[in-house]
Amino acid sequence: MDTSPTALFDSYEQDFRQFIETIKENLESSETEANGEQKKATLRRAEMDLDEADEMVSQMEIEIQGIPQSVRAQYHTRLRAAKADLSRYKKLLADSRAQLARADLLSSSNNAYSSSDDPYNSSSDRTRLLAGTNALEQGTKRLQQSQQLALETENQGADILMNLRTQREQIENSRNTLERADLAIDRASSTLKQMVRRMYQQRAVTIGIVAVLITLIVVIAWEKLSG
Questions:
Q1: Is residue 20 part of a domain?
Q2: Domain CATH code at residue 105
Q3: Model confidence over 177-210: pLDDT tens digits?
Q4: What average pLDDT is seen over the chain?
Q5: Structural domain includes residue 227
Q6: How far from each other are the two terminal CA atoms of the chain, in whole angstroms?
Q7: Is 21 helix (H, G, I), strand (E, B) or coil?
């Protein structure tokens, strides 16, 4: 099992690309499907895959914080590319849903018009259709704005996490430096204590030697005087 700092990021990115490929196939398939219910089911599958892809991007944002600084820049580039792909396919899904809703609205309006015996209902039906289309377009725009805001918030959150990570590393480096300084001071203090102890030992030996010499001199002098 790969235990390198980038292994999980690479794994999440690979899963993300698989989801993106499936989403692309579903969106392309929905464009060729004539049955409305089948198209809705295909778009629902694409939406679920988009949720999974979004989760993979979130995991990539978390894992990138543990990647060494020396190679983190290239992984930030890959993360930004993944976010761009995610945002693009979210927009494509929203557009496909809008087209499907517009088609359903047109179909229901045409059915209502064809089943009506009153020839004067066409104007009111057209007005309701235009109003519904405008409301749908406004809803799509609001959804796109919300997605853009969410993406900007995610980017800001990632930047904040990266700054916090950098600050924590600086604090840890400062703490390690202080610990090394404390260790050096302890070693120096121990060395000084040993030097002082040896000095006292040498002084005691010197005093002992002097005392022995004085004793010998006294003994020799006494023997000469007594002889």
A1: yes
A2: 1.20.58.400
A3: 777 867 777 787 778 788 878 888 888 888 888 8
A4: 81
A5: no
A6: 97
A7: helix
| Torsional sign, CA 27, 91, 51, 96 | negative
* Residue 25: per-residue pLDDT: 92
Tokens of 80: 């930004």
In one-letter notation, the amino acid at residue 173 is: N
39: number of Cβ within 10 Å = 21
Kindly report, residue by residue over 69-90, the tens digit of the pLDDT: 999 999 999 999 999 999 999 9
Predicted TM-score of the model (pTM):
0.47
- Closest to 54 (Cα-Cα) out of 12, 25, 21: 12
What does the block give as tokens for 189?
């203090």
- Give the C-alpha separation, 148 to 153, whole Å: 9
Contact 50, 23 (CB under 8 A): yes
∠ CA 78-45-20 to the nearest 5 degrees?
15
Q: Under a CB-based contact definition with an 8 Å cutoff, are residues 71 and 132 in contact?
A: no
